[in-house]
Amino acid sequence: MKKTYQYLFLLSIGLFAFQSCEDMDDTVHVSSGLEVESFIYRGLNLYYLWKDDVPDLADDRFASTEEKDAFLDTAASPEALFQDLLYKPVSKFPTDPIDRFSVMVSDYTVLENLFAGVTKNNGVDYGLKRKTGTNEAFGWVRYIIPGSDAAAKDIRRGDIFYAVNGVPLFYNSQTDNNLALLNAENYTLSLADYNGGAITPNGRSVSLTKTELTENPVYDARVIAAGTHKIAYLSYNGFTANFDEQLNTAFGQFKAQGATDLVLDLRYNSGGSVRTATRLASMITGQFNGQLFAKQQWNAQVQAAYEDQNPQALVNNFTNSIGSAGINSLNLSKVYILTTIGTASASELVINGLKPYIEVVQIGDKTTGKNVGSITLYDSPALVNKDNISTKHKYAMQPLVFKTTNADGFGDYGAGLAPNVPLMEDLNNLGQLGDVNEPLLSTAIGLITASGRMIHQNPENANRDLKDSKSMRRFGTDMYLENIPTGIIRK
User: Fold this and answer.
1) Which CATH number fits domain 121-213: 3.40.50.300, 1.10.10.10, 2.30.42.10, 3.30.70.100?
2) Cα 385 from Cα 472, distance rounded (Å)
């Protein structure tokens, strides 16, 4: 069916959504038995970032409702339709994919729990590496989540595991058996020693059970005295809006202790809320309240609506408050940020958004390269909330719908943000998070105090993670927008 969208005035300077209407009586045509497929098509046809690059999403793709229904009816499953409508549909190991991150779930409570930091988790946050020169793989423990099953077991940061339930981990460009093994709710890890790249089984094992777990992303917050400097150190592992008050409290403690510098550890932070990222950037600074932190770029139709009716809705500005509470800001002109290949989305947004305003010294490895974000779409008239949601299913989508740029207009970091000081983590000398001798933190302290003895060099046998526990989780590396008020689109 040929469609022409007319956008009316947006109801808020925040994020908006549209209510898609078949006729002037505000009804949406849905054929019986195609409820999920119709929802998928309607949401992607309206919001998808790469809509113009997917011929089947073109507004003039179908000559009639019957023709569109026939197209939807050919899909093997809702999941297959969703994949087919993505720009370069993703696979387990896609070749040069454009859309690596759009997801769909059959139960929207899964997404809602993830937003709140709730996952089925045994508490082991891990990375997976390929053993040099082989197709063997192994895992290493990045950190243990407090209060988890693993926190009560004999496993800790730096431990190496080579098998799950007795099945060795391996690298294969076509399949991902590791994901199936590690997605189980109960499993036993076989542990090994690591020496210069050699993996030697040590006879130890640990059995773990996943439970519903809420992770506080503020993992470690402390102030380190180093000469005339008081260096705030924050290990922050997810932009989870439910914990913004705890994040603000940490910065309040930094201020109370007279912090002169900040080392922000985002090496295991795969992203989350844009609003939280904006607040964190405001806590680091404070002197740029009301100025542009980041700007969104949507598909051509949505972008035109913003620019015509309410361009302010496209921007995220530095702020000085969280609700009615004031933000605890450090007013820094320089920040040191620790990164790895697992640093993604909202973490990268903070780095990129701060660069036009203050000096950002990035220490570690290049980041993931995720400069795109998403919104949650439900099968409801407005799509972006659950008002009058369909009772026939619980499917929801988290498609990519926008890119971000900073105040200088830069946002092309799909290949990752490169560090100023390259330094990959060394499994032979991993150290403990927050310890002044841990190589990445030690290097930051050395740069702050001009103490060269604390600056480390890249290890000879370092290699990047293939995947990690967050990137292997659906929606684990997403950047998303919240609280989207509704507007109207008419055909």
Assistant:
1) 2.30.42.10
2) 27
